[in-house]
Amino acid sequence: MNKIKYALLFVLLWLVVVCGGIAVAQDSDAPAPPPIPVNIQTLDQLLKEVQRSITIEGKIDQDRERVFTRNRNDQQRLLTDQRNARIRQEQRSDRLKDQYDTNEAALADLSELLRERMGNLGEMFGVVRQVAGDTRGTLENSLTSSQVSGDRLDFLADLAQRKALPTIPELEALWYEIQREIVESGRVVTYEAPVREPGGEMTPARTVTRVGVFNAVSDGEFLVWDALSANPSLAELKRQPARRYRGMASDLEDAEPGTFESMAIDPTRGVLLSRVVEAPTLGERIDQGGLIGYVIIVIGLIGLALAMYRWMRLSVASRGIKRQLKADAPDADNPLGRVMMVYTENPQADLDTLELKLDEVILKETAPLEKGLSTLKTMYVVAPLMGLLGTVTGMIETFQMITLFGTGDPKTMAGGISMALVTTVLGLTVAIPLTFLHSLLYSRAQELIRILEEQSAGIVAMIAERR
Fold first, then answer.
1. How many structural domains are present in the chain?
2. The pTM is what?
3. What percent of the chain lies above the pLDDT cut of 90?
4. Are 166 and 125 in contact (CB under 8 A)?
5. What is the pLDDT of the chain when averaged over all its residues?
6. So what's the pLDDT on residue 435?
7. Dist CA 465 CA 251 (whole Å)
8. Pairwise CA distance, residues 359 & 285, whole Å
């Protein structure tokens, strides 16, 4: 009985192992075995079932072996394919590397050949870039830009920064722009263009007359090309040159085609014109002299008025003396007549008394003739001294500015230097004509006094002969 129990226990263990193997087999590609019936009652039934299970397990093992063999063959084939693919890629890599080395060598040879064949072409490219840049700078500041489209500046800027060789059409375009600027520099043309007023307002269109690349005028006013503003355009000068130049501009604008008119041009393309309009006027020059300058001017005006007055008085006296020389009877309206009246009023006086009376009258008539000449002399002496005073004052102011601000900015010293120079000029300007007028008036007065003395001496001599 015990043997039967041990036999059943062994069979059960074996079934557990078989069932575990069947469960593992189900995870593979092999078909699953049929389930074991659980209604086994006798040992014969168990034995038959075990035998059937053994047969089924054998088939399952055979199926598993076939699947494994098939998968193994497939894996070997895949491995062989991958190895062959790797070999082909390695061979392709070797071919590409050889081709790369060959191309590198060919590229080096071609680059050397290119450098040899370019020769002066590379230098020409540098010259083209430089010329394009210089031409752009010239055209940007040229008056012709107010008439010609600004696309040419963009083209020249691109050509000046180009890294590649320019094409033949681009070289021809560069030549054309240079040639057009040369042609326009010799033309006088009239066209419509926007103009910025001195106050900043923009006039959409005004008639502009351009004289080459030197000057542009509109309505008798000179214009400049403002290339530094955000919107480059013609701008009217805030301060115009002298009236005679504006008259030339008006005559040029009104001239008929084919006629000739005189016109002042600026060969520096606006630089000289800007300097001319910045030059101070006569009033500004005088104002630079300060208080001393105005004092010198007042002295000059007073001296000029005095000289004119004395010239008129001497002229009246001279005409009266000339009339008296031609008359027989003495006239009290002129100095010579009053001298001659001394004899007519004292016919019986002795010679010494008459001579003394004549000297007295001559002295009396000499003072009015020489009146004001000493004052005029003082003025022409004081005027340059005042100028010297202004010079010293201006230099003191200049040295004060140097002490405070140094010599870095010449404008800080300009005020004192201007005062020194202007007062010197004003002093000499006043002194020179006053000196000349004083000399002229003094000579005229001495001439009249000499006539009086000659006539007095003649009267004395005539009386002496009679007695």
1. 3
2. 0.53
3. 9
4. yes
5. 80
6. 92
7. 78
8. 52
CA-CA distance, 333 to 317, in Å (whole number)?
Answer: 9
- Tell me the per-residue pLDDT of 198-214, one tens digit each, with 9 for 90 and over: 888 888 888 899 988 88
Lookup result for tokens 């030197």: 214
User: Is the CA virtual torsion 295, 301, 307, 310 positive or negative?
Assistant: negative
pLDDT digits over 117-174, tens only? Answer: 666 666 777 788 888 889 888 888 888 888 887 688 888 888 888 877 788 888 888 8
Q: Are 155 and 139 in contact (CB under 8 A)?
A: no
Name the domain boundary from 40, 66, 90: 90
Q: Tell which of 239, 269, 299 closes a domain.
A: 269
pLDDT (0 to 100) of residue 40: 66
Task: Provide the residue range defining the domain that includes 83.
Answer: 2-90
Indicate whether 160 and 39 sit together in one domain: no
Which own/partner pairs from 203-211 qualify as long-range (CB within 8 Å, at least 24 positions apart)? 207/253, 208/146, 208/234, 209/249, 209/252, 209/253, 210/143, 210/144, 210/146, 210/147, 211/252, 211/263, 211/265
